[in-house]
Amino acid sequence: MPHKIILDTDPGIDDSFAIAYAIAHPDIELIALTTIYGNVTLEQGTENALKLLSAFGGKADVAKGESGPLSIEQNHPSDYVHGKNGLGEYELPETDAKPVELSAAEYIVKAVNEAPGEITICAVGPLTNMAKALELDPSIASKVKEVVVMGGAVFHVGNITPVAEANIWNDPHAADITFAADWPLTLAPMDCTMPVIFTREDLQLLADENPKMGAPLQAMSEFYIKFYRSVAGLHGLVPHDVMALMWITAPGAFHARKGALAVATDGPAIGQTLFQAQGKTSLSTAFDGRPNHTVLVDTDVKMFRSNYFGVLCAK
Ligand code: BDR
Ligand code: CA
After folding, report:
1. Does ligand 1 have an atom closer than 6 angstroms to the CB of 12?
2. Total tally of structural domains belonging to the chain
3. Which atom of ligand 1 is nearest to the CA of 14?
4. Domain with 151 in it: what CATH number?
5. For the CA atoms of 81, 17, 114, 116, what is the dihedral angle to 10 degrees?
6. Residue pair 172/263 in contact by the 8 Å Cβ criterion
7. Out of 3, 25, 156, 240, which one is annotated catalytic?
8. Handedness of CA 109, 113, 115, 118 (dihedral sign)
């Protein structure tokens, strides 16, 4: 049975690497891309989702999501990371494809209710659609197969503030609601994403072996690589969002811990992801009544790389 996946995304260069993987993987049935603001505006992200699907030869619904966070003032899109169009200024071909009528939250609720126990949601942008879906129908928590979130920096430093990672920072309230829900949730924070780097040589291999996906990915990545060079001195890019899908297809590539999660929703640490290990207690009330989730704290880089390039190059 293939993994039925809804990918909630703010495309985004690393989102594009995740979308390509979801389309290329023989054991993934990509049901839909549900879109969210974040790296780009909602409008731009939805356009990117439609164009990426068509350029990569994928067939999935696109449902347009929320255009801003639940409570905080909206942050500016991350154009300094992903370029103004979210794809490193690379222009994908136009498409006539359109989003479905349902909103992302409505789509998620409908899909989960129609196939209880079968749908995995991989959320790789701000978590506003997830919070809205839970608000619309809290019963989806017991019907979803799994929720996998790329976001947060648990023991690692953040990429927006010393403690906050972008997806959580963009809507801390929605992230806190998502982590409080009693559903089977796995978090792929920066702790597991930062060890993995795709170099220019890797991208050349992808472009040679799978030009349909690899050539656009290579072209859009130059912007992202320059960003990582300037802020972290890296010689390549970090494919953060792929982790969420890799957890589904190759869980052995990760080292995981169990614990409750909460998010700081105001003050100087706003956007920080807080983790309390299973079995521990503390004087903080933030974790009271919260379920234990799975947190990916490290990655087997060799296994990850051989899986990713194996899947894309076999296509
Ligand atoms: C996360 O933020 C976005 O910029 C990326 O697409 C990824 O989802 C990394 O912090
Ligand atoms: Ca993303």
Report:
1. yes
2. 1
3. 6
4. 3.90.245.10
5. -100
6. yes
7. 240
8. positive
Pocket test for ligand 1, best of 10, 35, 187 (most atoms within 8 A of CB): 10
**156 flagged as catalytic:** no
Ligand 1 in contact with 48 (CB < 6 A)?
no
What number does the ligand 1 atom closest to the CA of 13 have? Answer: 6
CA 268 to chain centre: 25
Nearest ligand 1 atom to the CA of 124 is 8
- Report how far residue 56's alpha carbon sits from residue 51's, in angstroms, rounded to the nearest whole number: 8
| The one-letter amino acid at 209 | E
Best probe residue, ligand 1, of 85, 163, 167, 191 (max atoms within 8 Å of C-beta) = 167
Its domain, for residue 63, covers: 3-312
Separation of alpha carbons 221 and 227, rounded Å:
10
Q: What is the SS3 assignment for 76?
A: coil
List per-residue pLDDT tens for the chain, 315 residues long: 899 999 999 999 999 999 999 999 999 999 999 999 999 999 999 999 999 999 999 999 999 999 999 999 999 998 888 999 999 999 999 999 999 999 999 999 999 999 999 999 999 999 999 999 999 999 999 999 999 999 999 999 999 999 999 999 999 999 999 999 999 999 999 999 999 999 999 999 999 999 999 999 999 999 999 999 998 888 999 999 999 999 999 999 999 999 999 999 999 999 999 999 999 988 999 999 999 999 999 999 999 999 999 999 997
List residues bridging with 185 in a β-sheet.
Answer: 147
Output the CA 167–ligand 1 centroid distance in Å.
Answer: 6
Q: Give the closest residue (by CA) to ligand 1 atom 10.
A: 166
How distant is the alpha carbon of residue 165 from its chain centre? Answer: 12
